[in-house]
Amino acid sequence: MIRLSSLTDIQRLYARHxxxxxxxxxxxxxxxxxxxxxxxxxxxxxxxxxxxxxxxxGHLFEKEEEVFASDHRHEAIGAHALAGxxxxxxxxxxxxxVAAKRYxxxxxEKYSAALSPASQRSLKLQGGPFNAAEAEAFxxxxxxxxxxxxxxxxxxxxxxxxxxxxxxxxxxxxRDLLLDAARA
Length: 184
Known about the structure:
- By secondary structure, this protein is an all-alpha fold.
- The chain has helices at about 5-15, 30-40, 45-55, 75-80, 90-105, 110-115, 115-125, 130-140, 145-155, 165-175, 180-184.
- It has one domain: Orthogonal Bundle (Hypothetical protein af1432).
């Protein structure tokens, strides 16, 4: 698995692959910016804003045409890639944001129907809605509430209008959250 070793690595990855859209109608970069801006507007902790910005970074390691061929577990790939740079409060909501979608499909009657067509399609690959036991297990995980909040920003961050934000707007926040070992 890939590990990113610096903030510069993240910036380069988004510069190289951020214009791909993976079926959502907005680019990965714009989706990341919209999600982070929503978290910020809702007064979330900096760690959740960072998680919202970086939650789909795992997709940037995939080929665009392969996204719906199978579940590549972009959430696990992304969390692992970021683990040497950021703490659990950033990485765990990223790792759990797909599980949060499955959880919300179980918990909220109308949630599934409100998902974007691409999210509905990927839900099938990701195992579909949780059952009661899976939902209960999810609720026992650390950061599950942050993952649910992140999932809601993910769902809302697919608008055609632009966020008018740039990745550089969030760079100071990301730099402040780097683990001490990543700062060296």
